[in-house]
Structure to design on (386 residues):
């Protein structure tokens, strides 16, 4: 029964983290780190650093990836499932409740006006996210070309995002292989 | 419908490199292509996802899934968006040392990171055009700006945009409070009769 107990612990821990962290993945990682290393002793400091390095190198949400990786380390595939499930359960409950009443809510004139302001703030939020990301992601001439290439291909020519990403990855592999671009050692974001 | 939801969100989960915000351009493209939502509806949902607990991408998937297929839809969309990383991360954990030090993977990410940032920039610019100018063609845009000055949604939106950007980027105020502040600004402008709604 120890496996079941471990799975419950994983599920419960990540429900807490998923349910009380507003603002997404980056806000969660330090909390997961503290809980896993200091409180639950699921991983050593180094193991946790490996997991934190792995999480953004995989597709998907960074907070969820960290949970999945940690769960998998603690209790294999069932552990990965339990941790991931814990992480998404609060979102599922809260968002379904909000989505349920959202249309009625939005038919109030006052709310519509509030959301005119909100949408402008979201655009600002996205722009600051881009700048933050670009600081880590656009560092040499090659990456500058890819950044603007991706931007224009998608915005002006409507090239689907998947094709843009695949092309960027292929170009980078080719450029590194042909030594047009040198990878810097500190691979941090 | 549920199958379309699942395959769409599986694809989004598979191509979302660079964390939660990377989901936004992929999801925007999906909801517009299927005509599931308008751009303004999508932007509203992004705001809700930001100010509620949980990862923003999971919140978005749940919300759009619920809109399209009720509670089953929300479950399918969230499961679909998580599944690719669930499989890949679990597999990668078996040889984590190799994965984190692989040169091939590093070069792939050397290209993926600027690409993902460029796509988010594209989505952000798309949203701005929609909010500020109503139309995306440059000529109607210019005409619209001139016609709508002053006291219009465009001017109000542009002002809120500038102030929000300053608050988040320079003063580092939590986005949750910025969004709530923008909501209050919208209500105030509405009460003062500045907004057409």
């Amino acid at each position: 029964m120890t496996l079941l107990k471990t799975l419950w612990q994983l599920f419960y821990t990540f429900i807490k983290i998923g349910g009380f962290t507003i603002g997404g993945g980056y806000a969660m990682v330090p909390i997961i780190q503290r809980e896993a290393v200091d409180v639950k002793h699921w991983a050593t400091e180094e193991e946790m650093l490996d997991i934190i390095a792995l999480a953004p190198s995989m597709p998907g949400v960074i907070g969820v990836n960290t949970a999945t990786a940690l769960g998998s380390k603690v209790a294999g595939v069932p552990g990965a499932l339990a941790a991931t499930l814990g992480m998404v359960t609060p979102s599922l409950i809260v968002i379904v409740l909000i989505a349920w009443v959202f249309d009625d809510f939005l038919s109030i004139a006052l709310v519509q006006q509030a959301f005119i302001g909100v949408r402008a703030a979201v655009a600002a939020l996205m722009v600051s996210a881009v700048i933050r990301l670009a600081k880590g992601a656009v560092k040499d001439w090659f990456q500058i070309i890819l950044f603007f290439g991706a931007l224009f291909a998608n915005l002006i020519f409507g090239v689907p995002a998947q094709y843009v990403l695949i092309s960027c990855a292929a170009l980078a592999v080719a450029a590194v292989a042909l030594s047009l671009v040198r990878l810097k050692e500190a691979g941090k974001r | 419908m549920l199958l379309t939801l699942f395959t769409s969100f599986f694809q989004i989960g598979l191509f979302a490199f660079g964390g939660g915000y990377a989901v936004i351009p992929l999801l925007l493209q999906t909801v517009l292509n299927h005509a599931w939502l308008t751009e303004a509806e999508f932007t509203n949902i992004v705001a809700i996802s930001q100010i509620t607990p949980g990862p923003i991408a999971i919140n978005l998937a749940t919300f759009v899934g619920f809109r399209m297929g009720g509670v089953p839809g929300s479950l399918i969309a969230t499961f679909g968006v998580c599944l690719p990383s669930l499989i890949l991360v679990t597999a990668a954990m078996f040889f984590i040392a190799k994965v984190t030090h692989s040169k091939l993977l590093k070069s792939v990410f050397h290209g993926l990171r600027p690409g993902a940032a460029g796509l988010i920039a594209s989505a952000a610019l798309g949203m701005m055009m929609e909010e500020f100018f109503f139309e995306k063609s440059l000529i109607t845009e210019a005409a619209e700006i001139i016609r709508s000055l002053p006291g219009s949604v465009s001017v109000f939106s542009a002002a809120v945009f500038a102030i929000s950007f300053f608050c988040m980027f320079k003063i580092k105020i939590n986005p949750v409070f910025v969004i709530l502040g923008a909501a209050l600004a919208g209500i105030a402008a509405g009460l003062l009769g500045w907004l057409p709604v």
In short: Residues 4 and 77 of chain B are 10 Å apart (CA to CA). The radius of gyration of chain B is 19 Å.
